[in-house]
Amino acid sequence: METKGYSSKQYTQPTKRYVQTMDLNDDTELIRRYREAHDKEHFWREIGEGIKQVGILEMEIYILNNRLVMIVDTPADFDWDKAMAKLATLPRQAEWEQYVSAFQQCAANATSDEKWNMMERMFYLYE
After folding, report:
1. Dihedral sign, CA of 34, 101, 53, 84?
2. 95 and 114 Cβ atoms separated by less than 8 Å
3. Stretch (H or E) spanning 59
4. What is the distance between the alpha carbons of residues 63 and 77, in angstroms, rounded to a whole number?
5. Which pairs count as long-range contacts for 39-44, CB under 8 Å and 24+ apart, including other chains?
6. Where are the domains of the chain?
7. 57, 15 Cβ separation under 8 angstroms
8. pLDDT per position as a tens digit, 16-60
9. 16 DSSP β-pair partners
10. Is 75 helix (H, G, I), strand (E, B) or coil?
11. pLDDT at residue 2 above 80?
12. DSSP secondary structure letter of residue 74
């Protein structure tokens, strides 16, 4: 595993961050296919466009075994609930959610908000 770290985007506006977690089905082949669905070559262009359209600045997913952690950076005035409601109506979003549900520990018809569990920040370098 790489330990060099990852570059972070810099923003010219105040931002906030959301962190969510979800588990994949604990199956090596399904996890391989889930990774492939999210690689640059296979990721559905419309999904990325929709994520940006609702105001998300950056979205990253990290994986350890079958545990996912998603980090989402947004403008400071971002309204999560409104953005997710809008995202759900955008082209191919429902199809994408149905497709990736085969890899995830969730109901086949679950929405993104039903799949991902919002995490609570319990520590930061207090300043």
Report:
1. negative
2. no
3. strand 58-64
4. 28
5. 44/92, 44/96
6. 15-118
7. yes
8. 999 999 999 999 999 999 999 999 999 999 999 999 999 999 999
9. 74
10. strand
11. no
12. E
Residues 59-99 pLDDT 10s? 999 999 999 999 999 999 999 999 999 999 999 999 999 99
State which amino acid sits at residue 120. Answer: E
The pair of three-digit structure tokens given for residue 110, joined into one six-digit string? 């679950």
Query: For the chain, what percentages of helix, strand and coil (3-state, to nearest 5) are there?
Result: 30, 25, 45
For residue 109, what pLDDT is reported? Answer: 84
Please report the pLDDT score of residue 58 as a whole number. 98
Pick the CATH number of 15-118 from 3.30.70.1090, 3.40.710.10, 2.40.128.600, 1.10.10.970: 3.30.70.1090
pTM, two decimals, is 0.93
pLDDT at 3: 86
Tell me whether residue 19 is exposed, middle or buried, using C-beta atoms within 10 angstroms of its C-beta: 0 to 12, 13 to 18, 19 or more.
middle
Strand 15-23 vs strand 58-64: parallel, antiparallel, or unpaired? unpaired
